[in-house]
Inverse folding.
């Protein structure tokens, strides 16, 4: 490939900063928040408004783009630039915006129906291109706005208005899907864990390239308690694998469980730490270049193994689509002898002309 | 065959003839050679005077195989010259297309001047010194035929020889063989007595200026680049490959030095979505497509109507419905452009009338989009896209100034007297809303597809507000009419009772038909619409001036439906959907009949 300018990985380097200290309130709009009382979206909104001041970015250089669905109302509540677009298309719209404007921090807010059903195509292509986007995928495993049909992340056999005898299709595991598309940053977090949610958002913001953050979000109206297994105060820790880069994958209320690599097939499984010994426990490597490791981690939360890793699955640095696109344009413009107007003259003239007097 | 046609066109253009071309090819990339569906043709019309169409029926037909002869014979008038490659008229090839007898031998071509030449044999002989296999050698026979025609019409040859040398620079044997075949064809014409005449078509009298030959898609791409330069906005093209629009993507991708970003999207929807996103960011967002792609983009066009952001949708129409005839032309997407969205979603429509006119039409589409903050349709078609004609290269200084001003300051004060920004406060003249791009401090705002309150842009479900917003968006588009010129009618005699009204690529055939009609002593008025939404303000008055209005279209009557509904004029249609442009001769006949009917009544 020629004319690609290597820009390195300045995470937020191209976005103007502000000197004025910001508060969460600066990111609130005068619009009344209209989610159902008790909705998990409130917690995510508060976390986002709460952590953005840390970045110190000029508020006018932040854009939230959403599709359609409950979560997609998000931009209306953020005192930044924002667009509430059409169902499933936010990643495509945000791709154009991020490509055209290097100086913007572009966030996509989407849900499991928006991102994985109607917008599945745009999502996977944004992920594979590694466009400079932060995609927050609110996964409540149900359709909320259309009042309770099953979603592409609903478990098989889900009884809903549209599936009175149970849903038949296998759900997506959004993290596995993203890793299959070679996403450079993939993480999962939970609406109710403000601290963890904030730490993951921060890591995503600092990543240059596409960051996909799956947020388990409770819909208390149509799918209440979807994540109770891991949210349970007493036993939740037994099912939640908290991933920290460089730390062994040990979890459980008494830290008795750990993730080991099965020597037979290389897959990751959960074992009793005391039985296998601490040295067998996998040390988390979020920066592993090969996505197979992160993918194996993501498979812990299949139907048979309901362990839920949360945190950053993968964070690697690859050239981004938009940086390279701008690099090609810059390289071509650098070769210009004159300005655009004089160049337009030669373009229009072309090679083969004749003159009539 | 397309390459051969391009070369002959190029020589003809540089010689100074006026010309018009009509490439016609199957949708299949490598359609089986020698079959009727596999025939690829290139029609060229050139003259020492101003011409408007690629011609109805050829004076010379070069048929490289029996299928090409059979496919084109119905369009070839008696008395025409036919040159065929006799080597290809084998029993097997004849059988493939259902010829029982060899038409070269059974007397069925008696009405034509047939030159049955062993083009393959002569070419193979001419290139034998280069050591190519027979198959490769025979490939040069198109160049032999081109050489022969170049002799017949006194075309200059240097350009083609230079072209061949540079095209095959890395394969000198192939270059040499093609040049040798080309020269051999020329020499064959000059030395043999088979061709008793050589024609001289003098350069056409054209307005002073520097000219080049240009196809519609190229002119459209250049128009977009020019619009970007003239507006000072970087061009962002979001596109998905589709025939016959892909050439625009290819072309624009070569011009990054103008700050052009081209994005080959995963689908049509992402193509327009990315373009709209770029527009939100302050770029000149453009998407290119054809009918099926427009169908997929409809929802995003509706969003653009609601967001009131500039966006240009270049729709290069082709035969439909569905996949239809991808490589053939049609004008059947006018209603889709006009109404193909949910809700009341008016979008201005601009249509070029000739290949070179695509340049000006692109600038006009961008002007409307930027001035009125609206998506705009630029409706071209396959005939314009691939056809070509001489183009007088415009003076850059004469191009329109398309500069825009982004909003930089708050435009409203809240109840407490603090300045704030209302994204839907309109310019009283254009009704355009302010374009405030991200990065502008103090103007942070949220827009979306949900209905907005007039002025503030906040979500509003208020019935009266929705009615107001629907009417305001319509009024904004209607108001574009105040910025466009009146429809000019061409009626040299000034006493025509019949008006022929057209839009888009039918301009050439209608104009040529009108010339024929006038030459025969009748009066006819011709009007051609560049703007279809909104119509020019004088259109209603123009229509009422004539006793009869006839509207030829390459569809089953789309413009006429709009005209009849809007002006209550009893216009009559003339409609064909053959995937081909109208013939001037055919239209002249239709117009003559209409005139006779009016005169007789």
């Amino acid at each position: 490939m020629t004319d690609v300018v290597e820009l390195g990985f300045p995470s937020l380097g191209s976005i103007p900063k502000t000197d004025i200290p910001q508060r969460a309130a600066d990111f609130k709009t005068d619009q009344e928040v209209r989610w159902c009382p008790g909705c998990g979206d409130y917690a995510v909104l508060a976390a986002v408004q709460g952590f953005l001041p840390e970045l110190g970015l000029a508020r006018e250089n932040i854009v939230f783009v959403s599709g359609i669905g409950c979560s997609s109302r998000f931009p209306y509540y953020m005192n930044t630039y924002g667009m509430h677009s059409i169902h499933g298309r936010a990643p495509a719209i945000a791709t154009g915006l991020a490509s055209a404007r290097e100086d913007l921090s572009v966030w996509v807010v989407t849900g499991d129906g928006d991102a994985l059903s109607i917008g599945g195509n745009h999502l996977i292509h944004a992920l594979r291109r590694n466009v400079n986007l932060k995609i927050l995928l609110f996964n409540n495993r149900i359709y909320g706005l259309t009042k309770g049909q099953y979603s592409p992340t609903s478990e098989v056999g889900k009884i809903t208005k549209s599936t009175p005898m149970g849903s038949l299709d296998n759900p997506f595991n959004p993290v596995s899907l993203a890793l299959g598309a070679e996403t450079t940053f993939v993480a999962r977090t939970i609406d109710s864990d403000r601290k963890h949610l904030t730490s993951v958002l921060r890591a995503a913001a600092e990543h240059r390239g596409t960051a996909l953050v799956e947020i388990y979000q409770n819909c208390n109206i149509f799918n209440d308690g979807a994540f109770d297994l891991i949210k349970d105060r007493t036993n939740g820790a037994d099912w939640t694998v908290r991933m920290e880069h460089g730390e062994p994958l040990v979890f459980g209320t008494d830290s008795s469980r750990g993730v080991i690599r099965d020597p037979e097939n290389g897959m990751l499984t959960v074992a009793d730490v005391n039985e296998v010994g601490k040295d067998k426990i996998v040390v988390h490597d979020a920066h592993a270049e090969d996505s197979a490791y992160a993918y194996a981690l993501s498979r812990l939360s299949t139907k048979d193994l309901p362990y839920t890793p949360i945190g950053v699955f993968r964070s690697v640095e690859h050239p981004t689509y938009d940086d390279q696109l701008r690099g090609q344009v810059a390289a071509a413009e650098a070769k210009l002898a004159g300005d655009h107007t004089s160049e337009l003259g030669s373009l229009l003239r072309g090679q083969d002309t004749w003159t009539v007097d | 065959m397309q390459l051969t046609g391009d070369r002959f066109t190029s020589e003809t253009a540089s010689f100074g003839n006026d010309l018009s071309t009509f490439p016609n090819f199957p949708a299949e990339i490598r359609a089986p050679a020698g079959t009727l569906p596999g025939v690829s043709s290139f029609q060229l019309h050139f003259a020492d005077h101003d011409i408007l169409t690629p011609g109805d029926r050829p004076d010379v037909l070069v048929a490289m195989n029996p299928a090409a002869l059979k496919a084109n014979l119905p369009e070839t008038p008696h008395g025409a010259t036919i040159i065929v490659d006799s080597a290809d008229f084998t029993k097997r090839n004849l059988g493939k297309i259902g010829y029982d007898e060899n038409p070269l031998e059974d007397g069925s071509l008696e009405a034509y001047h047939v030159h049955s030449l062993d083009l393959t044999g002569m070419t193979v002989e001419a290139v034998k010194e280069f050591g190519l296999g027979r198959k490769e050698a025979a490939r040069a026979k198109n160049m032999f035929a081109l050489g022969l025609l170049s002799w017949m019409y006194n075309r200059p040859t240097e350009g083609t020889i230079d072209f061949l040398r540079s095209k095959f620079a890395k394969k000198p044997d192939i270059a040499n063989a093609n040049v040798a075949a080309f020269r051999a064809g020329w020499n064959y014409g000059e030395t043999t007595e088979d061709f008793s005449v050589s024609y001289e078509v003098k350069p056409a009298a054209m307005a002073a200026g520097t000219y080049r030959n240009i196809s519609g898609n190229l002119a459209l791409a250049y128009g977009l680049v020019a619009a970007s330069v003239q507006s000072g906005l970087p061009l962002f093209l979001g596109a998905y490959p589709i025939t016959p629009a892909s050439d625009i993507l290819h072309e624009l991708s070569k011009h990054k030095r103008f700050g052009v970003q081209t994005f080959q999207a995963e689908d049509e929807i992402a193509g327009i979505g990315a373009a709209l996103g770029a527009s939100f960011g302050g770029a000149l967002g453009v998407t290119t497509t054809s009918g099926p792609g427009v169908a997929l983009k409809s929802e995003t066009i509706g969003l653009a109507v609601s967001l009131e952001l500039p966006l240009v949708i270049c729709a290069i129409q082709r035969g439909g419905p569905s996949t239809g005839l991808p490589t053939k032309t049609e004008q059947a997407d006018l209603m889709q452009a006009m109404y193909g969205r949910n809700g009341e979603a008016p979008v201005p429509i601009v249509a070029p009338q000739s290949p070179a006119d695509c340049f000006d039409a692109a600038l006009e589409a961008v002007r409307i989009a930027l001035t009125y903050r609206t998506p705009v349709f630029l409706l071209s078609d396959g005939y314009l896209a691939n056809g070509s004609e001489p183009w007088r290269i415009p003076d850059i200084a004469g191009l329109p100034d398309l500069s825009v001003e982004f909003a930089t300051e708050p435009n409203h004060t809240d109840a407490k007297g603090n300045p704030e920004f209302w994204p839907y406060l309109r310019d009283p003249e254009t009704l355009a809303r302010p374009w405030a791009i991200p990065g502008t401090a103090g103007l942070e705002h949220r827009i979306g597809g949900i209905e907005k309150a007039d002025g503030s842009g906040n979500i509003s479900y208020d019935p009266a507000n929705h009615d107001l917003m629907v009417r305001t968006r319509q009024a904004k588009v209607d108001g574009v009419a105040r910025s466009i010129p009146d429809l000019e009618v061409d009626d040299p005699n000034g006493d025509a009772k019949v008006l022929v009204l057209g839009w888009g690529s039918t301009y050439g055939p209608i104009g040529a038909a009108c010339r024929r009609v006038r030459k025969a002593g009748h009066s006819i008025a011709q009007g051609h619409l560049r703007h279809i939404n909104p119509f020019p303000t004088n259109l209603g008055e123009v229509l009422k001036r004539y006793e009869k209005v006839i509207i030829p279209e390459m569809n089953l009557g789309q413009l006429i439906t709009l005209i009849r509904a809007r002006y209550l004029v009893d216009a009559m249609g003339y409609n064909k959907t053959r995937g081909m442009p109208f013939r001037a001769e055919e239209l002249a006949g239709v117009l003559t009949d209409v005139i006779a009917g009016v005169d007789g009544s």
Summary: The longest strand of chain A covers residues 308-315. Residues 1-10 of chain A have pLDDT under 50 and may be disordered. Residues 24-247+306-333 of chain A form a domain with the Rossmann fold fold (CATH 3.40.50.970).
